[in-house]
Design goal:
about 525 residues; Rossmann fold; 3 domains; 25 helices; 6 strands
Length: about 525
């Protein structure tokens, strides 16, 4: 059985990748195909799904700053959207019921509210995968979307407690004892080095927190999320996240397969699920207008709203719980699983065109912006140095130091991560905050003084998007970028990047050149 679903998952994932769709859509399709062929999810698929979700929430926590959650655009945006969605969703559902659509016209008021509530959540799995694949987790809109998802997770935990009557243990307050223990735990992490102990430690912390919270009768996944936030400020947080990335992606295959294994739909169920997905534009519009009213810029509101315009796997948990309690018929579990699957596909397809669509229609969205944007959304005019490095990761910082040593103070860096920019500034590095994929950023600075732009980014798609944005502003300078593989290099050169460096080759060349400097003085001395 394991070989069959692994093979199906691989084939379907490969096919969707070949048509420029995320492999996760293929995994969803594989689940439904296997279900239609008579296969059912075994304990391994369920276990993989649970592990994947726990690891995903833990890694989200590692990237979160608790201060971000108390921002009005996060907590008020999330709560107000949930309330408005419930009201408007109920009206839509009752309107559909008025025209006697099967399954819906039989719903009571409480049952209708449960369904709309289940559909109010956005998918953590879908949104995180979407942002990770495009390298947008640390952008302004990426952090905003993740913050709202965390707030929704908190609402979900509260619902589960109330709906199941599962009251947390009176000993739950003992978990606070871990707060003063953090310095000692941090020392343990420091001693782990950089090898195989790093991912193992990540597993230990994530599942240790899961089991502790379950012991205290609180949702274990919520404990994994809090554990990640607890260690988010540690110097090895990023290293732990990267070490768990492949494990997380592998285990999440089980989650996508498990949705398809839920049940076989009838044509009527498929039609109802399709009707529910027609509510996605309402979800998008609510998010967009709430966020712009909270003084966010149009692009940030647009991208965040589009990423969040899907239904959540939590809807299936609500449906299963409601069905078990007799509040909802079992057929609705199938309908909601179909709606969730459809929403994943729609979001992934539409988001592929999000940046280009906004760039071509930005005036339509910008007219809804507040005249006084939030302070952190005001661009700081970069210095007049002629060389700009986009992406201040390890490669970007290496390029900055090398160029600064050769030509002096003629280089500046740009990064979308506010915390990283502050850290770079503290170290005396000339770095600025900004999203290079944002056309507004390039239009707000004087490009006539920039002679060379280095795109030190890991994602080829990000490099292509930024190159397109720069070219739209009639930039006259040169563009250089990095690529890991030859096919990526060819794609970037054909798109118009002036010089593409093969990452692995250039590391070898640089290593050789620097090493040769060790023996050159000796050779000169011998020659004389």
């Amino acid at each position: 059985m394991e070989f069959i679903w692994i093979g199906f998952a691989f084939i379907c994932g490969l096919l969707t990748k070949l048509i420029s769709l995320p492999p996760s859509i293929g995994y969803l399709a594989a689940g439904f195909i296997l279900n239609a062929l008579g296969y059912q999810a075994d304990s391994m698929v369920t276990a993989l799904a649970d592990i994947g979700i726990t690891l995903m929430l833990f890694t989200i926590g590692l990237k979160l700053n608790i201060k971000d959650l108390v921002k009005p655009e996060i907590w008020f945006g999330s709560v107000s959207h949930s309330i408005l969605w419930l009201v408007i969703g109920m009206l839509i559902l009752k309107t559909i019921a008025f025209i006697s659509v099967g399954f819906i016209n039989e719903l009571s008021l409480i049952t209708s509210a449960l369904i709309i509530f289940a559909l109010s959540f956005s998918s953590t799995v879908c949104v995180v995968k979407l942002l990770e694949e495009r390298g947008e987790m640390r952008t302004r809109h990426g952090k905003l979307a993740i913050g709202i998802l965390v707030m929704q997770d908190i609402i979900a935990v509260v619902f589960l407690v109330l709906a199941t009557g599962k009251v947390p243990s009176p000993w739950v307050a003992l978990l606070l004892l871990f707060i003063p223990l953090r310095p000692y735990i941090n020392k343990g992490i420091d001693k782990a080095g950089h090898g195989e102990l790093i991912p193992l430690m990540g597993f230990f912390i994530a599942f240790g927190a899961y089991e502790l919270f379950e012991l205290m009768k609180v949702k274990g996944d919520f404990g994994a999320l809090l554990a990640g936030m607890y260690f988010a400020t540690h110097s090895k947080a990023s290293e732990i996240t990267k070490s768990l990335l492949s494990f997380k992606d592998l285990f999440l295959i089980g989650f996508f397969l498990s949705i398809g294994f839920t049940a076989l739909p009838t044509m009527e169920m498929l039609a109802i699920a399709s009707v529910l997905t027609l509510m996605l534009p309402v979800k998008f519009l609510l998010f967009f207008f709430i966020l712009v009213k909270l003084k966010l810029r149009g692009r940030t509101a647009f991208l965040s709203a589009l990423a969040l315009s899907n239904f959540s796997e939590f809807g299936l948990i609500v449906a299963a719980l409601s069905s078990k309690s007799g509040w909802l018929s079992p057929e609705w579990l199938v309908i909601l699983s179909l709606a969730v699957s459809m929403s994943f596909i729609i979001t992934n397809v539409l988001y592929n065109f999000a940046h280009d669509y906004f760039a071509n229609n930005k005036e339509r969205f910008k007219r809804f912006e507040s005249k006084q944007p939030l302070a952190e959304d005001n661009f700081e005019q970069p210095c007049e140095a002629p060389i700009a490095i986009i992406g201040m990761g390890r490669v970007g910082m290496g390029a900055y130091y090398a160029l600064n040593a050769q030509i002096g103070n003629q280089v500046w860096g740009l990064d979308a991560d506010k915390d990283k920019v502050q850290w770079l500034n503290d170290k005396g590095i000339q770095a600025y905050l900004g999203d290079a994929e944002d056309a507004d950023f390039w239009e707000s600075i004087d490009l006539s003084r920039i002679e060379l732009t280095l795109l030190a980014l890991p994602s080829v798609q990000d490099i292509i998007n930024i190159t397109a944005q720069i070219k739209r502003t009639n930039y006259r300078g040169k563009i250089a970028a990095i690529a890991r593989y030859d096919d990526e290099r060819i794609a970037l050169e054909s798109f118009g990047v002036d010089k593409v460096f093969n990452f692995y080759t250039e590391v070898g060349v640089g290593f050789a050149e620097e090493s040769m400097s060790l023996i050159k003085p000796v050779q000169v001395l011998e020659a004389s």
